[in-house]
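Appendix C: a fully annotated inverse folding record. The material below is reproduced so that readers can follow the format used throughout the book. The structure is listed first as tokens, followed by the designed sequence.
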């Protein structure tokens, strides 16, 4: 193996966002773009020589080329071994599972999650540390700093591409590349948590399910678990073949983007259970027959029913949710007598709580749910948890959720996304909101009394690190909230997210259309933030 030093120079804008560095494919295809970032990453890992890395991605366009480049750079940096998913594929939760099970030093995941793929779509790269979770901010900031002072990077020059289809060991110089089954470790983990016999019986009894893998990384995992281990009929998983452009779809499992599945679950002969996962299979959407479960409710329901599932039978240590996620989980935590942590948006903020044994279940409004079994959110895990509940109770998705509302009350919830806002305009809106905060606390708007108005800040209870400016919150008497924040995962302009929540304890009022139930809060958000005037837009692009 010959190592060459390639001269380069810093490229602006390589600061990782909510979940790694995400850009258009065309940006990543520029000379040195990927290499510069990988160099800054490897260089930030002081004791990398002789270590084992995990590598894989969601299979989107540019995945395979990037895998080969990263392997050649890893060899040049002296890593002893890289475990690569067959075909270059590893879902985000599977990468986390492999890092943990094999005791790897860390992992590189190539994904832009739920963003569209293909030559005109997005690409992304993120680094996970040895606990299997997303790198914390001090690591991503060190990587960013590295990208800003880079002058050269080493790479193995005279080596053939690794055959990613062939399981087993190959070599680049002294470095071993082991191509692994991307599904096996994760499936084994699932078997240890859930009652596979009960779920198999549920399918054998004729119950039906539709899992939409959205032509993304989740397909092989869902097929192996549902159609393989659980004996569900072939065809239970739709769009199960990962494609480089996700079949032209937007692989984001929400009612706006998973139209085909919503249509199937709305039909007269709809299956009993519907689910979907995103590009890298860490997100999930849960549906009943003609019934949509919000991610916030899903977290609360799983927490309230955890005792019915083998892996969680001994109880939960705590629950954690991101700040914009509804407070439904807080009510469950209170009933269980366990803590509920409120963190900033981004799965990385759950890592310390999980590592310290303070939380068992975590969830976000952005269709992410997970537990301490890995350090990422996990789409298939959430789906199997629900399936286990269906099998254990014999109830439908709708029955389980309605019983939950009857017991705890309903947290009506919706998120309005204002997409493609010019960055200066979005910043101006947020600045104006922040400037108004002092005058909003105590203000009354019609029936709504704002009890508290602030910019969310978080002090990590484990390491004491502080994250400020995490979203503007209006806390309204009675448990309602309006939250404003700018997305940290987009690649074009800014996306303003407006999160709306209303608590309703009266079961007679649990059947309102959510947008109607939230109407006064939607009006309040416009009145206070002047969204239309600031953005120049008429309506949110996506409502979930
Ligand atoms: C990714 C992250 C999540 C986050 C979501 C939305 O999926 O892993 O933790 O909640 O993006 O982030 P955004 O900044 O776009 O609202
Ligand atoms: Zn994702």
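Designed amino acids, in order:
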């Amino acid at each position: 193996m010959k190592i060459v030093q390639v001269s380069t120079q810093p490229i602006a804008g390589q600061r990782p966002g909510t979940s790694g560095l995400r850009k258009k494919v065309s940006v990543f295809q520029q000379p040195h773009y990927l290499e510069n970032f990988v160099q800054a990453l490897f260089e930030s890992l002081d004791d990398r020589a002789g270590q084992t890395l995990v590598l894989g991605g969601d299979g989107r366009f540019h995945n395979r080329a990037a895998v080969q480049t990263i392997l050649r750079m890893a060899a040049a940096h002296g890593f002893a071994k890289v475990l690569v998913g067959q075909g270059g594929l590893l879902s985000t939760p599977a990468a986390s599972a492999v890092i943990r099970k094999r005791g790897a030093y860390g992992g590189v995941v190539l994904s832009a999650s739920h963003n569209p793929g293909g030559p005109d779509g997005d690409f992304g790269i993120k680094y996970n540390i040895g606990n299997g979770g997303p790198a914390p901010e001090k690591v991503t900031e060190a990587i960013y700093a590295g990208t800003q002072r880079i002058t050269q990077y080493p790479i193995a020059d005279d080596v053939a591409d690794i055959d990613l289809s062939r399981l087993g060991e190959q070599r680049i110089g002294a470095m071993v590349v082991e191509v692994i089954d991307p599904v096996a470790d994760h499936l084994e983990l699932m078997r240890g948590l859930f009652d596979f016999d009960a779920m198999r019986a549920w399918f054998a009894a004729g119950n039906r399910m539709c899992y939409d893998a959205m032509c993304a990384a989740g397909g092989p995992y869902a097929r192996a678990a549902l159609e393989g281990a659980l004996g569900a009929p072939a065809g239970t998983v739709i769009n199960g073949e990962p494609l480089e452009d996700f079949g032209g779809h937007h692989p984001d499992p929400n009612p706006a983007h998973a139209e085909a599945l919503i249509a199937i679950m709305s039909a007269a002969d709809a299956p009993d259970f519907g689910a979907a996962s995103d590009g890298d299979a860490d997100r999930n959407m849960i549906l009943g027959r003609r019934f949509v479960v919000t991610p916030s409710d899903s977290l609360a329901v799983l927490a309230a029913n955890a005792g019915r599932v083998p892996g969680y039978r001994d109880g939960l240590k705590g629950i954690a949710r991101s700040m914009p996620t509804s407070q439904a989980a807080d009510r469950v935590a209170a009933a269980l007598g366990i803590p509920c942590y409120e963190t900033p948006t981004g799965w990385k903020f759950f890592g310390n709580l999980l590592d310290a044994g303070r939380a068992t279940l975590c969830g976000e409004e952005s269709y992410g749910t997970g537990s301490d079994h890995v350090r990422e959110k996990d789409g298939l895990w959430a789906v199997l948890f629900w399936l286990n509940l269906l099998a254990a109770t014999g109830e439908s998705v709708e029955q389980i959720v309605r019983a939950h509302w009857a017991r705890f009350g309903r947290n009506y919830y919706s998120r309005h996304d204002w997409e493609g806002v010019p960055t200066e305009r979005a910043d101006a809106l947020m600045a104006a909101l922040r400037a108004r905060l002092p005058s909003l606390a105590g203000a009354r708007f019609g029936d709504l009394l704002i009890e508290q108005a602030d910019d969310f800040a978080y002090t990590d209870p484990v390491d004491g690190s502080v994250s400020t400016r995490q979203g503007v919150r209006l806390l309204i008497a009675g448990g309602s909230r309006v939250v404003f924040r700018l997305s940290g995962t987009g690649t074009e302009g800014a996306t303003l997210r407006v999160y709306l929540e209303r608590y309703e304890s009266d079961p007679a009022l649990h059947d309102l259309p959510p947008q109607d139930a939230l109407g006064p809060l939607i009006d309040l958000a416009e009145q206070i933030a002047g969204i239309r005037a600031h953005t120049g837009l008429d309506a949110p692009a996506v409502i979930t």
